[in-house]
Amino acid sequence: MRTLYLATFFAVVLTVSILGFRGRTFTKPPMDVFPEWLFPGMKEQPKLVQQTASAFFADGRSDRVAPPNTVASSFGPAGQPLRDDDFLYRGKLADGSFARGFPPALKVDMKLLERGRDRFTIYCSPCHGAVGDGQGITKKYGMGAVPTYHDDRIRAMAEGEIFNTITNGKGQMNPYSDKLLPADRWAVIAYVRALQRAQTGTAADVPADHRGELGLK
Are residues 195 and 147 in the same domain? Predict the structure, then answer.
């Protein structure tokens, strides 16, 4: 037993002698069991602790205002203004059911549809296709089955449920709440509804003052 104690003691002394005490000042750097050249960025990485000064910025502050176009979270503590409108920010009614239609806070007009088309083209069309038929470019690279928006199930789905899917994701689809503001998610939904309507529209749906543009009488 005495031999075991001595062996342990010498092992500890040897280890401390080689590695040194962490946090002490040495004339030479102590040996590091995780050297930077072998594990870059694991230990010696630049970072700022809360309320510390920064030499990088002219005002010396390390806490910065969020960059322009930063997407804020749609949720927060109870009473936060972002949660005052469940329809707009959750797609739900007061009883928790999915809402139909669009939030009264938004105006569904051509500007909203154009915004929806822009966001749809960037974030949705790669998988769902330009017309929402599920034939996006990702299908050529092994993406599994992607639902078509022209399925009766999705046509009948409440807009609030579609909003919830965009926000939280579903199945293979990741959430897009970190990429799309709530108003942009509604804009995408409005554009999806336009795509669905385009597949079932008839000449009778064209307003009289625009029929001449299409060669209709």
Answer: yes
Q: Is residue 157 part of a domain?
A: yes
- Give CA–CA dist 201/214, Å, rounded: 14
For the segment 98-113, what is each residue's pLDDT rounded down to a tens digit? 999 999 999 999 999 9
Decide: 107 and 175 in contact? Cβ < 8 Å. Answer: no
> pLDDT tens for residues 151-205?
999 999 999 999 999 999 998 899 998 899 999 999 999 999 999 998 887 877 7
Q: For residue 195, how many other CB atoms are within 10 A of its CB?
A: 19
Is 52 a domain residue?
Answer: no
| Residue 213 token pair | 């543009």
Among candidate residues 174, 196, 192, 173, the one with its CA nearest the CA of residue 184: 192
In the chain, the amino acid numbered 103 is P
CA distance 56 to 77: 33
Q: Are 128 and 134 in contact (CB under 8 A)?
A: yes
Same domain membership, residue 16 and residue 116? no
Which residues fall within 8 angstroms of residue 99, CB to CB, at 6 or more apart? Answer: 87, 91, 92, 93, 158, 159, 160
Helix, strand or coil, per DSSP, at residue 214: helix
| Segments forming the whole domain that contains residue 31 | 1-44
Q: How far apart are the first and last CA of the chain?
A: 106
pTM attached to this predicted model: 0.62
Closest CA to 144 of 134, 155, 133: 134
Query: Residue 71 falls within a domain, yes or no?
Result: no
DSSP state of 54: -
